[in-house]
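Schema walk-through. Below, the input block comes first and the output block second. Nothing else is stored per chain. Lengths vary across the set, and this one has 357 residues.
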Amino acid sequence: MPVSQERMQSALGEIMQNSPIQEAKYAQIITTQEQRDEAAMPERLMIYPRQLVTFPNHPFYIRDDEDMSKLKESIMNSGIRTPIEVIRTGEKNERGEDTFYIVAGHRRTHVARQIFPEDHRLEVRIHNMTMDEAIVAMTESNLLTRENILPCERGNALRMEIEARERISGRPENGTVAKNVKTRDLIGETYNMTGRNVQRYIRLSYLIPELQNLIDDNKIGMVTGVELSYLTAKEQHDVWDEMELTAFEHYPNKAQAVAMRKLSKAGTLDMDAVVDIMEVDKPNQIEHVRYVPRKEDLLEQIPAYLKPEEWKAKDFTDFIGKAIAFYASSLQEQHAQEIADRMQEANRNRKPWERSI
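--- output ---
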């Protein structure tokens, strides 16, 4: 004879003695899978924009650019069609209302605050997540859906995600980096990137904010930024101060950044060294003289294995320009390296108490 649900509940209640842990197990026994699935679904709620809080250390900028204008026009015409994804902060605002961290929907919230009246409510979907799970969801939703992501935005987001994933799964034991490398590769697969490329972007997150802005403004190349990221915060501020003192007439290039990184590793990169390296003229800062030799003379210099006869109909102007630029860049890199070597040698010849600390 089947046992009724009431009798089962009574019998189990006596055995479990109102234990919270046992009650949870009991709930799994007496509820259907459909009921459990429904209970696990995110709660939907209508709230005011003032109850929404920017996600802590949100790595993506909110820019009033062309994309934001298009989003604003879309919302004005059709409203916000998908709920804002949030988690509870556990805190209340000055009006005593519950507040929520935005997991996905920062740009939509920004527009809503601009165009809707204060008493306009937005639909949100409240997720039951840990903060680390929310970080992963926040970074994924942005990296997979945003079109124009700046290098340091991507780097900061990838670093947040990889650190959150490591906390969720547990950090590598005995100081090994195997799990870290594996995590980079897995994240790279998600975003169609190699693990090595993921690491390059993550290095940008170690730059001070001032240098990150120069990367995102295309004043400094990404490869140069990666090299500068290995400098200490003080050394990076010295680089920034030197650029600021010269009214940003000079920005470091890869060769200069490599030279500074080498001195930093040796512990000898002080402000004087930064100035000396930054004062090395780069190819684009040198006055150029236009000279195009005769094609007949150039053809005589082309080795036989490059088949000179095939070059007769080609325009050498672009080729010559690239060759000169490459040679000038090599000379500049060599000069910067010579400065770094001389400074290291000078530091070794100092008395112990005179050396840079």
